[in-house]
Design goal:
- The complex is a heterodimer of chains A (116) and B (112).
- By secondary structure, chain A is an all-beta fold.
- Helix content of chain A is 0%, strand content 53%.
- Chain A contains no helices and 11 strands.
- In chain A, a hairpin with a 2-residue loop joins strand 7 and strand 8.
- By secondary structure, chain B is mostly beta strands.
- A 5-stranded antiparallel sheet of chain B has the order 1-3-8-7-6, with no helix packed on it. A 5-stranded mixed sheet of chain B has the order 2-10-9-4-5, with no helix packed on it.
- In chain B, a hairpin with a 6-residue loop joins strand 4 and strand 5.
- Chain B is globular and about 45 Å long.
- The chains are: A mainly beta (116), B mainly beta (112).
- Chains A and B meet through strand 9 and strand 10 of A and strand 5 of B.
Chain lengths: 116, 112
């Protein structure tokens, strides 16, 4: 149980374009989903917390207009990186917390974004 | 003081030995604690949760919690090369949100 999928697993895009990443909880309902970014050999950096049906809460320093998050249902959240630049190249990972569970987060497999 | 402190390692143990991973945290209000394993290039995977003082065992893994000392540890018995990964300690912070506080993790290498 507690499976989270993420799509795509890898994406290469040109500078200035937008990329959408989907995160789905497959076998549970997730009231809260989290979006992280991780650079090589660095710790997980929380970008934002999204609750179903409400606006995402962004961490300090994360531009909400650049990283658009939509949590449209209890099983789907999307992150759109708008006007991507090479410095946005990173490993983006979502996680989900179950409606019925405690505080544990279940992670998707991640999306490796390369902006050329 | 960092919110979560872990020895970055690498911690190197021979196959079959016990690996001991330690973590201290600064938020006295934390009540829930999680250990995640992250293989290189992959996302974190939940391996243990602990909420009460004392020990909690699950297979080869034992989590230990001491809230008074603000200390949580993970023991891995009969370590295998497949256990080689970074282990992340993640307490839930006090407060109404569901965010976990992440350390940098300890890199474990199990040598055959």
């Amino acid at each position: 149980g507690a499976v989270v999928s993420q799509h795509p697993s890898r994406v290469i895009c040109k500078s200035g374009t937008s990329v959408k990443i989907e995160c789905r909880s497959l076998d549970f309902q997730a009231t809260t989903m989290f979006w992280y970014r991780q650079f090589p050999k660095k710790s997980l950096m929380l970008m934002a917390t999204s609750n179903e049906g409400s606006k995402a809460t962004y961490e300090q320093g994360v531009e909400k207009d650049k990283f658009l998050i939509n949590h449209a249902s209890l099983t789907l959240s999307t992150l759109t990186v708008t006007s991507a630049h090479p410095e946005d190249s990173s490993f983006y990972i979502c996680s989900a917390a179950s409606l019925a569970g405690g505080y544990e987060q279940y992670f998707g497999p991640g999306t490796r974004l390369t902006v050329t | 003081q960092k919110e979560v402190e872990q020895n970055s390692g690498p911690l190197s143990v021979p196959e079959g030995a016990i690996a001991s991973l330690n973590c201290t945290y600064s938020d006295r209000g934390s009540q829930s604690f999680f250990w995640y394993r992250q293989y290189s290039g992959k996302s974190p995977e939940l391996i243990m949760s602990i909420y009460s003082n004392g020990d909690k065992e699950d297979g080869r893994f034992t989590a230990q919690l001491n809230k008074a000392s603000q200390y949580v540890s993970l023991l891995i018995r009969d370590s295998q090369p497949s256990d080689s990964a970074t282990y992340l300690c993640a307490p839930k912070g006090a407060g109404n949100n569901r965010k976990l506080i992440w350390g940098l993790g300890t890199s474990l290498a199990v040598n055959p």
